[in-house]
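Hi! If you just cloned this repository, the fastest way to understand the data is to look at a raw example. We've pasted two of them here, unedited. The first protein comes first, obviously.
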Amino acid sequence: YYRTKLPSMDQPYTHNLSDIKVTSWNVRGLRKLIKLKQTLSRIKQLKSKIVFLQQTHLTDCELKSVRNRWPGQVIHASYNNYARGVIILVHRSIPFQLTKIIKDPAGRYVITQGTILSITLNLVSLYGPNENKPKFFEDLFLTVSALQGHNWRRL
């Protein structure tokens, strides 16, 4: 079933994957409640359904404030309250069935695998190093390819 009119924020999603609004944003910290509220308000204005946030600077304990305010799934990798941290937000109107999560212990990425409308997807929120670190990206690509069942070294 496909609709031509976009659903409201809370209606179940019945569109093609290409109709899902996706946003990626380096928020440079969400520890202050006012900044978190402003960020989530802007995401709502944009009508984004899948959101990748980088540099959240939140600890595992502080993520409760995000979970209490975001209507849907909150998938994260934390480091400490001064650096890094990434989040994937999936709105409850998106029927994302999560099957696997891989978190970087250094809080630089979170990789998820799941399905939307019977299509398998990998969602990755990434905050890469700001210096030349080829090994980081090689390891990341190998992790994603292993999740997909590919071996990039053989290709």
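Ok, and the second one:
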Amino acid sequence: MVGDRAYDLLAAEYNGLAFVGCTYGYAPHEIARADCLISSGTELAQAVLCALASETPNFN
């Protein structure tokens, strides 16, 4: 699940889903414990591809 608010993170946790937090959203401080933090749409695409391949994304 992808989101930028604590409500999104809680929904993912409640449903047993991995959570990708978007730091470019409304409240990046609320999603600090996301499974993965991204700062752009390009990073989102990379995170999804890595998740499908069961790898850890590298944004360096």
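That's it. A detail worth noticing about the second one: The mean pLDDT is 87.
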